[in-house]
Amino acid sequence: MSQTVARPVRAEDLAAMGEDAAFELDEGALVPLPPAGFLHGEVVSNVHDVIKRHVRRHRLGTVLAAETGFVLQRGPDTLRAPDVAFVARDRLEQVRRGGGFGEGAPDLAVEVISPDDRAADVERKALQYLAAGVRAVWILFPATRSVSVRRAGGDVLVLHGEDTVLDEPALPGFRCRLKELFDGLEEPD
């Protein structure tokens, strides 16, 4: 009796499914991306707006939202879609090549935690971003209004309360009060 083993899904296979295919790839395996909740959407919008203002003002590159896909690894393919991403101007041509998903890592990847996210899954994703060359990963926790900043080399910085996000190597000159990222949200219970 023979068994059929499914071959790993490639980024090109995922692209052929169309934009309605809500998946990431983790070493060739499809990972569903369920629709985000309202709170998640509010935080993503805030983060995108704050970063976009800075990037535009200083002409640093481009900021992407809507879970834009980036191929972080080939053979088997790992494709991740951060909630917000920044690609520096000097890397845009390299990452855009091919016109489909981004090839390689963004300079900054931002993930906003939803109530159903598992810590181990988010940690795996952060490590994949860093291994692919992301300069920094921000993980935002709306429930506690805190941010975990992970950088290449293993540095981890946890911000909360009245802290300020600054000295971000991926975004030269960037500075913002943590409160701005969670602006307009209802106070946690």
Classify the beta-strand content into a percent band: 25-35%
Q: So how many helices?
A: 5
Please state the average pLDDT score: 89
Please tell me the total number of domains.
1
* Spatial ordering of strands, largest sheet: 3-6-8-9-10-11
Low-confidence stretches: none
What would the principal axes of the Cα set say about the shape? globular
Q: What percent of residues adopt helix (DSSP H or I)?
A: 25-40%
- The oligomeric state of the chains shown is single chain
CATH architectural group: Alpha-Beta Complex
Q: How would you characterize this protein structure?
A:
The protein has 189 residues and is of the alpha+beta class. The protein has one domain: tt1808, chain A (Alpha-Beta Complex). Helix content is 26%, strand content 29%. It contains five helices and 13 strands. The longest helix is centred in the first third of the chain and has 21 residues, at 38-58. The model has no long low-confidence stretch (mean pLDDT 89).
Task: Provide the descriptors you would attach to this structure in a database record.
single chain, 189 residues, alpha+beta, tt1808, chain A, three-stranded mixed beta sheet, 5 helices, 13 strands, 26% helix
Chain-wise SSE layout:
Elements: H1 11-16, E1 23-26, E2 29-32, H2 38-58, E3 61-64, E4 70-73, E5 78-80, E6 84-88, H3 92-96, E7 102-103, E8 108-112, H4 119-131, E9 136-141, E10 146-151, E11 156-160, E12 164-166, E13 175-177, H5 178-181
Parallel strand pairs: 4-7, 8-9
Antiparallel strand pairs: 1-2, 3-6, 4-5, 6-8, 9-10, 10-11, 12-13
